[in-house]
Specification:
- The protein starts with 5 loop residues before the first helix and ends in a 7-residue tail after the last helix.
- It has helices spanning 6-18, 21-28, 67-79, 90-105, 142-147, 164-182, 207-218, 237-241, 259-270, 283-286, 293-305; strands spanning 42-47, 85-88, 116-120, 152-159, 186-197, 200-203, 227-232, 248-251, 276-281.
- It has 312 residues and is α/β, with parallel strands linked by helices.
């Protein structure tokens, strides 16, 4: 229903084969916002999960492994102009730019004009591997993001007190923040306290752990002035918001197929503190059960931006 057609996929691969110079020029000339936000708030679509070997949605372990459908859902949402922008790994950002280029060549208006584009820097901690906590920086560099005209960088660390790899990833995040500061890129940092349970790492959403990890994240790098934190919603979220003055974007987590519950949580989160400024959410918008992804994104937009929301 949302998948890219075979002709678009073929032309996208042709662009890859030709070497990408055309895409580089198109990306560099993309109209960008004068400021990151228009009202101090952001709703950004997240699309970086397949690069960490996370492809499951519901009972289907490979749902996000269908690239035509995955890209089609992303483009569908962006075309409806119901998010501020997109966060993704290099392949996703480049592919979406390529689709936009092809649409523009066909006479359509760019769906990425004035959108916030955020590159994902570290996805090396592949899900289910023995090195999962070694979340190495295997994605975008700050320099490449600047050359493509991106607006910000996303990185994450998972804090497990008994894992040496957590400390190494935190140190790598600090170095990456420094590089973003040097290249005038906004930083979107996702700090997650986790525990190992039943053979996998589970996010610890207690207020105590989230407050502590906010303090750690706020202090990383040689400057925090352009840092946004990506924090999961929890009960007593006002105490979490009160742990930092950095702007906070809420995350969605695994797709549940029930977007109404997510909307209720986000409404409560946005009311929890003046620095809760929106959401950076992927699977729950891209795969919202039987609902139209753009419709769900539009409802989230209205929560985040209020009266400035588009009609959906």
């Amino acid at each position: 229903m949302y998948a890219l057609d075979a002709e678009t996929l073929s032309r996208l691969t042709d662009l890859r084969v030709s070497g990408g110079a055309q895409l580089q020029v198109f990306a560099a000339q993309r109209p960008r916002r004068a400021t990151l936000t228009r009202d101090g708030k952001l709703l950004i679509l997240a699309a970086d999960h397949p690069a960490r070997m996370v492809t499951g949605v519901g009972d289907d372990p490979l749902r996000m492994g269908n690239r035509a459908d995955y890209l089609g859902r992303i483009v569908h949402i962006l075309e409806q102009d119901c998010v501020d922008g997109l966060m993704g790994t290099a392949d996703i950002i480049e592919e979406v730019l390529a689709v936009d280029l092809l649409r523009c060549e066909g006479g359509a208006e760019s769906f990425l004009a004035d959108k916030v584009l955020v590159g994902c820097m570290n996805r090396g901690g592949l899900a289910g591997t023995v090195f999962e906590m070694e979340d190495a920086f295997t994605g975008f560099t700050a320099e490449q993001m600047m050359s493509l005209g991106l607006d910000g960088a996303k990185m994450m660390f998972r804090l497990e007190p008994m894992e040496f790899a957590s400390g190494r990833t935190i140190e790598a995040c600090s170095r990456a923040i420094d590089a973003c500061v040097d290249n005038d890129l906004a930083v979107f940092l996702e700090p997650l306290p986790v525990r190992f349970e039943d053979g996998k790492y589970v996010v610890e959403k207690s207020v105590e752990e989230l407050v502590k990890v906010c303090g750690v994240a706020s202090g990383l790098g040689k400057s925090s002035w352009k840092t946004w934190l990506k924090i999961p919603y929890s009960v007593d979220y006002s105490r979490v918001a009160g742990a930092t003055t950095c702007p906070i974007l809420m995350l969605g987590g695994p797709a549940t197929g029930h977007p109404d519950a997510l909307l209720r949580e986000f409404a409560d989160g946005l009311a929890a503190g003046q620095n809760v400024r929106g959401a950076l959410v992927g699977r729950n918008v891209l795969y919202p059960g039987d609902a139209d992804p753009a419709l769900v994104a539009g409802k989230l937009w209205k929560l985040v931006h209020g009266d400035s929301a588009p009609e959906n």
